[in-house]
Amino acid sequence: MDTLIFETFPPITRTYLIVSIVTNILCFLNFIKPMDLILNFECIFYHYNIWRLFSHIFFFGQVGIKAIFFILFFSRYSKALESSSFQGNSLVYFYFLFTGNSMMILLKLFVPEASYLGPGITFMVIYIWGKKNAQQQINLINLFYIRGSSLPLVLMLASWFMKQKTLKLDIMGIIAGHIYYFLEEIYPRINGGQKVLIPLS
């Protein structure tokens, strides 16, 4: 693992990437059992597996093209968000990810089969990036251009078309991202600047 590559990433994105890559490799090598990482309320409440409230976001399912896809997309758009839209304020960006994780844990109440939410976190990051860079043109696989605001929808449709098992997780990430964006950006505009989320910046 080339440490020089990771040094180009801002701190929260870099930490998340290192932990998730190591976690997925350890699962692949059978040093860690995926079942010990997934979000399971019964294990949390009755067996005090508190780490499950967070470990599930670092796991992307079976190691393969899908896992690599999500890690690459997270690295690109998380780096862009933390470096520019969040103005290098790592505390605020950590709070954004923490809030998103909390929202998706609540959404799991409606999607019981959602056990690991790494793909959901990735889609939440992509959704917020798309909102903050709505007019930016993205060259999609060298075939055509789409606007930044359309990226989450295009990727979700691609998951649906390819019948990926992560589709519900993608949708959960988009919902969590939209709720965050509404509470952080839209609600204060229509209520005289009053914020629902804790103002850390």
Give structural notes.
The mean pLDDT is 85. The protein is 61% helix and 4% strand. It has one domain (3-190): Up-down Bundle (Rhomboid-like fold). It has a two-stranded antiparallel sheet. With 201 residues, the protein is mainly alpha-helical. Helix 6 (90-107) crosses helix 7 (118-132) and helix 6 packs across helix 9. Strand 1 and strand 2 form a beta hairpin.
Strand content: under 5%
**Quaternary structure:** single chain
User: What is the CATH-assigned architecture?
Assistant: Up-down Bundle
How do the SSEs run, as a string of H and E? HHHHHHHEEHH
CATH class: Mainly Alpha
Number of helices: 9
Helix content: 55-70%
Largest sheet properties: 2 strands, antiparallel
Catalogue the unreliable spans.
none
Widest sheet: strand ordering: 1-2
| Radius of gyration computed on alpha carbons | 17 Å
**Mean pLDDT across residues:** 85
Broad shape: globular
**Euclidean distance between termini CA atoms:** 34 Å
The CATH H-level superfamily is Rhomboid-like
Given the helix and strand composition, which structural class is it?
mainly alpha
What CATH calls the topology is Rhomboid-like fold
User: How many distinct domains?
Assistant: 1
Give the number of DSSP strands.
2
